[in-house]
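Data deposition worksheet. Section B asks for the primary sequence of the deposited chain exactly as it was used as input, without tags or linkers unless they were present during the calculation. Section C holds the resulting structure in token form. Section D is free text for depositor observations; keep each observation to a single sentence. Incomplete worksheets are returned to the depositor.
Section A, Depositor: J.P.
Section B:
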Amino acid sequence: MSSKLKVLQVIPRLGYGGAETGCYDLAHYLPENNCFSCIVTSGGDLLKFVDKKKVKLIKLPVHSKNPILILFNSIALVFIILFYNISIIHARSRAPAWSCLIAAKITRRKFVTTFHGTYNFKNSIKKFYNSIMVRSNLIIAGSNFIFSHIKDNYSKYLNLNKKFLVIFRGINVEYFDPSIILKVEEHELLSNWGLTRDKKIILMPGRLTTWKGQEVFIEALNLVNRELGHQSFYAVILGSDQGRDIYSKKIKRLAEQYRLTAQLKFVEHCKNMPLAYKVSDLIISASIEPEAFGRVVIEAQSMEKPIIASDIGGSNETIVNNETGFLFESNNPKSLSKKIIEVLNLDESRLKSIGIEGRKNIIKKFNVEKMCFSTYSEYKKLLN
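Section C:
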């Protein structure tokens, strides 16, 4: 069966997000199991790392929500499916999923979707547009939170004859491994960030956008300073504003207002995220809206770092509270500041224990091999 399995994954862009890295990882896992693997995308930074000898890469404007382009993409996909004799079509976003549905109907191939986020909707038209993600033969939710969200909001579109299950996202625990990073790399990054080891370093990774909670984080840092005294730590907000200039200026002004400019660094990019985690003493995920899964939380645990995260969304599933990390009341700076102070005051043996348990948690439940094997197994079941 495995030699006949030919999988086409369709994703708008192949960047560094959770959906994109999951697509990339699965695309390279399949050829190792004697499967044909193909990705259709419009572009993205991750493209340069795709092994062209293993994975067929085709560019189409599948990022577009234009109805004419969606129809054009569906026709192009029909030709790709027939030419390569594709057996499974896997869509990872809404616009390309509509093209995939049309192509799957025409070619009579199996259609799979992964529901990666909560997809906002303010009216029935937007909800109908989102519903494409539950119109496939196999619907994969990235977490139990997303599974519940689908049941609560899209039940009328769910077909009981079609399979609906959770496959947790996974990360490469060999890449996010603290033991492979050299001291010289740590010193170089700290130098680039203008930091030294004389104080604890608190890291908040994530793109600069309101719902990621950078304002909550800055408010909490101000409260920590009030409690512990100024200059008691360094902090780094790591992420790009992706064109959100007004929000970027707003949070920088907030940092200035609280006199945090000497302690708080804003860093746009870091190509080596394991290194960013390694040089940090504490990681923060302060989202004020539920994360569908939350990669920062599992990456931090894999790097054996204490993580403090909002008590909503996927974090409730990926953190064992007070064992592999800590949860705080979402959108509550005071709650976050208390947790930060608590962790900063922990002794080294307790921190080491949390780190070890965190990595065990990720290896057991959220590693990329487990995610890829589970998806591959479901593909085979679907064809049978």
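Section D:
The longest strand covers residues 36-41.
The chain has two domains: 2-170+367-383, 178-365.
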